[in-house]
Amino acid sequence: MNTDLLQRGKAIKLAVFDVDGVLTDGRLYFLEDGSEFKTFNTLDGQGIKMLMAAGVQTAIISGRKTPVVERRAKNLGIPHLYQGREDKLVVLDELLGQLNLSYEQVAYLGDDLPDLPVIRRVGLGMAVANAASFVREHAHGITTARGGEGAAREFCELILRAQGHLEAANAAYL
């Protein structure tokens, strides 16, 4: 495990996720009636729940807006949801003001150019394995899993491991 990533993960109080390409595989599915659907990975959802149970706050910031994401955030209990916002750093500034947190206390997982300003600014800025190459070049770390295929779980477990909570989170299921 990368010791720099673990060191960065120790300070994290807020984990923020992009949606398309991070919590999903990045494909957009449109039905004839104009509605859309997305698929989410249950491993990622469990990782997010484990992170919240360990006291780390969570948020979603997405450039797109869809009721499916609202439903997923509600199902997981993610309290901070921002959709239809390409200005992700501005959104994060607002949220940090509300939560009285600093950038160093934030971890962010993204995959494309709109995520890059946040990835470069926060304490732990990571990219999924299949992120745009320019984004991967500027991230602190890259998951081994692809977006929508367990990357968010890996990100959550890294933070849990860094803070000494992963073993207890797993042991709760033994």
UniProtKB/TrEMBL annotation:
Binding site for Mg(2+): D18, D111
Keyword Magnesium: yes
Group of enzyme by EC: hydrolase
Signal peptide stretch: none
UniProt-annotated binding residues for substrate: D20
GO molecular function annotation: 3-deoxy-manno-octulosonate-8-phosphatase activity; metal ion binding; N-acylneuraminate cytidylyltransferase activity
Cofactor(s) recorded in Swiss-Prot or TrEMBL: Mg(2+)
Family: Belongs to the KdsC family.
Described purpose of this protein according to its UniProt entry: Catalyzes the hydrolysis of 3-deoxy-D-manno-octulosonate 8-phosphate (KDO 8-P) to 3-deoxy-D-manno-octulosonate (KDO) and inorganic phosphate.
Protein name from the UniProt record: 3-deoxy-D-manno-octulosonate 8-phosphate phosphatase KdsC
Lineage: Bacteria, Pseudomonadati, Pseudomonadota, Gammaproteobacteria, Pseudomonadales
